[in-house]
Write a structure and sequence with these properties.
The protein is α/β, with parallel strands linked by helices and about 575 residues long. It has four domains: about 40-210, Flavodoxin domain (Rossmann fold), CATH 3.40.50; about 220-265 and about 370-425, Elongation Factor Tu (Ef-tu), domain 3 (Beta Barrel), CATH 2.40.30.10; about 270-365, NADPH-cytochrome p450 Reductase, Chain A, domain 3, CATH 1.20.990; about 440-584, 3-Layer(aba) Sandwich (Rossmann fold). Helices cover about 40% and strands about 20% of the residues. The chain is globular. The chain binds flavin-adenine dinucleotide, NADP nicotinamide-adenine-dinucleotide phosphate (NAP) and flavin mononucleotide. Flavin mononucleotide binds near residues 61, 105, 149 and 584.
Length: about 575
Amino acid sequence: MKLPFIPEDAPYTGDQKSWLKGFLAGMQSAKALATSKSGALTAHQSDVTPIVDILFGTQTGNAEGLAMDAAAVARAQGFQANVQGLDDISMDTFSSMKNVIITIATYGEGEMPDNASLFWESLNSSSMPRLSDMKFGVLGLGDTGYDEFCQAGKLIDMRLEQLGAHRLVDRLDCDVDYEDIASDWINKTIPLTNDGKSKPIVVTDEKLANVKSIWNRKNPYPATLRVNKLLSGEQSLKEIRHFEIDLGDSGITYDTGDALNIMPINDDELVKSILLRLNLSSELVLVGEDKTLADLLKYKYEISTPSRNFIAAIEVQAGDDLLSHVLNNGDKQALADYLWTKDVLDLLNLNQDIKFTGSEFVGLLKPLQHRAYSISSSPKKHVGSVHLTVASVRWNSNEREHLGVCSTFLADRVDVDEKVGIFVSPNKAFRIPDNNDSPMIMVGPGTGIAPFRAFLEERHCIGAEGKNWLFFGDQTRSSDYIYEEELAALKDSGVLSRLDLAFSRDQDEKIYVQHKMSEHGEDLFEWLQNGGYFYVCGDATRMAKDVDQALCDIASKWGNLTADQAREYVNNLKREKRYLRDVY
Ligand SMILES: Cc1cc2nc3c(=O)[nH]c(=O)nc-3n(C[C@H](O)[C@H](O)[C@H](O)COP(=O)(O)OP(=O)(O)OC[C@H]3O[C@@H](n4cnc5c(N)ncnc54)[C@H](O)[C@@H]3O)c2cc1C
Ligand SMILES: NC(=O)c1ccc[n+]([C@@H]2O[C@H](COP(=O)([O-])OP(=O)(O)OC[C@H]3O[C@@H](n4cnc5c(N)ncnc54)[C@H](OP(=O)(O)O)[C@@H]3O)[C@@H](O)[C@H]2O)c1
Ligand SMILES: Cc1cc2nc3c(=O)[nH]c(=O)nc-3n(C[C@H](O)[C@H](O)[C@H](O)COP(=O)(O)O)c2cc1C
């Protein structure tokens, strides 16, 4: 590649210009680097111990956990198991692998998780070599509540086949209740990577080291809620709350950047309304169940967001033209818009003739799931306690107040000093920099501020000297400036070096965090050039996409790069793990 001409009057200093030349030269030598990395992996050619490469694509750790499980199974069977994130391997290294297991979650609307996006870009490129010597198996994680179920796994599985790799076993697409079927698939697949010739089981140290927390989705810890405080003002159109949860004797530890999962309990009033609508007794006990129907609906099933099967069953009985139209015309956005404000009871109420027996109804529901919340405290500052920053989901439609299950469970239905089921999802890809001197730029409007409160507290506690810059915003300064006093104190103490605020509804035109980024683009670019880390947290569908584009525009303008080079610059930040996101 020819280096682009850098004009003398380009808007940066001499030092920055030489850095930029270095960056562009770095792009040229990326291939050479990849080759030398693969050279280091000559162990792949070992003919003594069978090798299996286990690669994961994850956001909240489930796929990584399964990759670790698969490695433990493989090691116990005498394999050398190498576990890596998908974006941590060069394509040269990947192409040289012989036995590959991929565990991968799906995000956005059928997209790759952040730590697999660059891998997918390369795998999908026309320059990708054939992979005829590779045997592979793909385990996809997803949620049938989303349109594009397990799409990331499906895409990778299909592309590997296209490239000539040999499928060891059919792809497994897992829904939310994935643990048991995933474990069966792993136990079945690992021996196949050595043509079925497994060595005798040897329990290794690594296997013993792969110890998990005893508190998990199936066994949440009953923690005590200690604080439930309204953060947003009386006049706010939103309700954002601060929660503090006591970790008691659980032994649970966490790092800043992790998420806390809450197991909600459904609202009694909604259970009653649904039973009344279906003319079913709350005391009914269904065959094979040990709980009453009312308790099943309260504790075990998702009775707010309708499942795909439930929607399909409703359509058959409802005779509702609009529902049939949005379900069958293939316009996924129209269907999503139609469903956005409707819960299970709204769909039952489409037509009073809709009827289900207790078993039919329960058979159409999905199991009640935990919800994840980005932890907003540093464990160093708040020993034994975990804090959350949660927007209560409430809306009115069809002459009824609708409640988000978990956010209002925390807000309304757990009293202070009562128990709430929790477990932690580590997010190793979303951490403060290892180097305490590295600058951090954090973009977190709305509840997106949560992990950054934790990051700032953490840096304060460890005395990190790196500069910290926060972009925060919400609707109005008077009602939605949450943690205002804490941020002011952090600013006074010098921990928060810069704070830029974007209150979207305080003026006629919208001002968002990305507008503030652009306004200070030159400084932001300089922070990045000085080794800065760029973090984003909050709304995935609108904000995070616009912030990503603003970052590219800043790189283009202040780095004097073409649009393609700016995108590559941003991709490079991702490769260096200096562009990190926690978006939902
Ligand atoms: C990794 C991760 C971290 C997260 N961190 C945070 C965090 O720090 N803070 C936080 O508040 N949330 C966070 N979330 C989101 C959180 O997990 C829940 O999704 C959120 O609290 C809503 O859950 P709920 O059970 O209250 O609502 P649900 O019962 O799940 O209801 C959501 C549904 O309600 C409907 N709906 C929602 N809003 C409206 C509206 N205004 N009008 C009409 N219909 C509507 C839509 O159909 C939507 O699908 C995070 C999510 C993830 C994945
Ligand atoms: N899918 C949706 O339609 C929708 C809507 C709201 C919230 N949510 C969900 O609600 C949660 C987060 O809500 P939250 O209360 O923390 O904050 P939020 O609703 O994301 O709002 C925070 C701030 O971001 C602004 N904003 C809106 N669009 C933006 C964009 N494209 N770029 C940058 N900023 C933008 C908002 O302005 P304005 O509100 O003034 O535009 C507000 O000032 C997430 O789960 C999110 O996915 C989804
Ligand atoms: C914001 C968000 C978007 C998601 N989008 C999809 C999707 O489009 N398709 C799907 O099958 N699953 C989707 N999921 C479900 C995840 O893939 C699933 O929870 C998975 O177990 C997460 O694995 P991880 O912990 O390895 O990231 C989504 C989850 C979240 C939080």
